[in-house]
Design brief:
This protein is of the alpha+beta class. It has helices at 23-30, 43-55, 63-79, 92-100, 120-123, 138-145, 160-170, 177-190, 240-247, 315-329, 373-381, 484-493, 496-502, 547-553; strands at residues 8-12, 35-38, 82-85, 108-112, 130-133, 150-153, 216-220, 226-230, 255-257, 262-264, 269-274, 277-281, 284-286, 291-311, 336-342, 356-365, 400-411, 418-420, 426-428, 455-459, 465-471, 474-480, 511-516, 521-526, 555-559.
């Protein structure tokens, strides 16, 4: 492996399984790249792939990646762009074999070892449907060293598909923690695709062209610093704001653990170099933790649901009547039966739709029959016997299985990490020798409180942006502002107690706040708000994607001098 001095240009063409299918071609045709990466895996995706593998043992990988490669692999070879993706899912060997059968002549390598399903009893991980440890980047780097044109992996961390090419390109050592941490941060920014270029962005109205945001690119230098950008002529934008948003996505505090390094998110400094070019520098790294996180997906049981439309007067009484009727008519009550009344109705409404509320009923049970046909039949049988105006948004289904995500932890020495090179040879990747227990950071020094001044009660989002997401049954909400003065107000105003008042659904939950001064941000981790994870659909917003926007919509007293209108670039 010969190290290089020039920055390596790494693009991304997928943020999830189901992302824009033509993005691979768009990225290859849109400009110069050294590597093209894709993230196809999420906690829910592993469950989906697990069910695929149960039906057909030869599957278990992201089929859309294979379609993209069939279309674009020849183009990538012609342009000298190497492809790295975690699309192998539960079967990277099967995907590598399928890629080889395309007949492109590309050298295909893969990384495996993450699948611990055969050892769950030995490792004390229960009896899950899938059990996959999060691997790091060194297997990818070894595959690239062998001359591979395409590297596919199973469950590596999202950033590893970016860190691996950078580590190979520069010849980094395993203890080059600052450089590795910088690459992890760059990878974290671009791995979710267009979320770094304006997608899911609070201040989207400030972006001139959101019709079709381009996918992001990280230009990573030998010291780990980077520039986040996108191809010229593509939609969306790369700004301090869009990059900050993605930095706060699905993290906890200032330490962001990966298998190869713990990146200090709290040390990252963002600078605007020019239009659509944002620099990230000064990221510090520490030794990785001594344990590997394991994604465990289990069959939680079966669920069914229906939604009733309640129109006009006496909404509460109508909801009470139908709930009592439905529960008394059920042959067997499910283990869980949740009702949610959403008061979307308005008095004296000029349209029927805006005069109506929604009543949602969700049932879960370990017995498919209890939430199956007999559950659905009762909902239909009420049609002529309940409240006036009885209506369903759609006939209820027959019930379906749902998954439960939990995280396990095992010592890194217990997790195989194997690079399978294009010639079929297998190379073990040693676990990290230098490790450090992951500990929370001490709270940083806070800016002085602002003097008392006149305030105005407006939505928090008048000056603050937010990004939220899911991690198992927990959710995080990162909130940040544009200026030092705004941060001096935010960090004292938006406390845990204030958040619980603004978001009453969090009132009885454990909430932890982390302060990130360099990003002018506070990040909240809300434990248990998503129940047993996204697949269980315990909430109206099961992935907590809208949680930050709900928070921004809540009214709070903000000093009049801070009300700001302008571009967040």
């Amino acid at each position: 492996m010969t190290p290089h001095d020039a920055a390596v240009r790494i693009g991304n063409c997928s943020g999830f399984y189901g992302d824009r299918l033509v993005a691979m071609r768009e990225m290859l045709e849109g400009g110069e790249l050294d590597y093209l990466t894709g993230d196809y895996l999420a906690e829910l995706t592993m469950l989906i792939l697990g069910r695929d593998r149960m039906k057909d043992a030869s599957r278990g990988y992201a089929k859309t990646f294979l379609r993209q490669a069939e279309d674009c692999l020849g183009l990538a070879l012609d342009k000298g762009v190497k492809i790295v993706a975690n699309a192998g899912g539960l079967n990277p060997a099967g995907l590598a074999e399928a890629l080889d059968k395309l007949g492109s002549g590309a050298k295909i390598a893969y990384v495996e070892g993450d699948d611990l399903l055969g050892r769950v009893q030995e490792l004390g991980l229960g009896s899950p449907l899938t059990a996959n440890a999060y691997l790091g980047a060194w297997g990818i780097a070894r595959c690239l060293e062998s001359g591979a044109d395409v590297v596919v992996t199973g469950r590596v961390t999202d950033a590893s598909v970016i860190v691996g090419p950078a580590a190979h390109h520069f010849g980094w050592a395993r203890t080059d923690y600052d450089a590795l941490a910088g690459a992890v941060v760059a990878g974290h920014v671009i791995e979710c695709g267009t979320q770094a270029t304006g997608g899911n962005y609070s201040f989207f109205t400030e972006i001139a062209d959101m019709a079709r945001p381009g996918f992001p690119i990280a230009e990573i230098s030998s010291d780990g610093s980077s520039v986040i950008t996108k191809h010229d002529g593509t939609g969306g934008a790369v700004s301090v704001g869009t990059v900050t948003a993605q930095l706060l996505y699905e993290i906890t505090g200032g330490r962001y653990a990966n298998p190869d390094v713990t990146a200090r998110i709290d040390t990252a400094v963002l600078t605007r170099e020019s239009s659509n070019r944002i620099g990230i520098s000064r990221v510090k790294g520490e030794a990785p933790p001594p344990t590997s996180k394991v994604s465990l997906n289990s069959l939680g049981g079966f669920r069914n649901e229906f939604t009733l439309i309640l129109t006009g007067l006496d909404i509460d009484a109508k909801a009470e009547l139908v709930q009592k009727q439905f529960e008394s008519w059920l042959p067997v009550r499910p283990a869980e039966l949740d009702w949610t009344l959403v008061r979307t109705d308005k008095p004296d409404s000029p349209t029927e739709e805006t005069a109506s509320a929604l009543l949602r009923c969700v049932a879960r049970d370990s017995d498919a029959n209890i939430v199956g046909r007999q559950f659905s039949s009762v909902a239909v049988e009420l049609a002529l016997a309940s409240y006036p105006g009885f209506s369903l948004t759609a006939p209820p289904g027959h019930g379906a299985p749902y998954g439960v995500f939990t995280a396990g932890y095992v010592p890194v020495v217990e997790v195989p990490h194997i690079a399978v090179l294009p010639d079929g040879s297998r190379h073990d990747i040693a676990p990290a020798e230098d490790t450090r227990e992951l500990e929370p950071l001490q709270q940083p020094d806070l800016p002085k409180t602002r003097p008392d001044e006149a305030t105005i009660r407006v939505p928090l989002g008048t000056i603050a942006a937010a990004r939220s997401g899911d991690k198992g049954g927990n959710a995080n909400v990162g909130v940040w502002v544009r200026t030092d003065d705004e941060f001096a107000w935010l960090v004292h105003a938006l406390t845990v107690d204030a958040l619980k008042k603004l978001l009453p659904e969090t009132r009885d939950l454990t909430v932890t706040r982390h302060v990130l001064p360099h990003l002018r941000a506070v990040n909240f981790v809300i434990e248990g708000i998503l129940g047993q994870g996204v697949a269980s659909q315990a909430r109206f917003d099961p992935q907590a994607k809208g949680l930050g926007e709900w928070l921004r919509s809540r009214h709070i007293d903000i000093p009049e001098t801070l009300i700001f209108q302008g571009d967040f670039t």
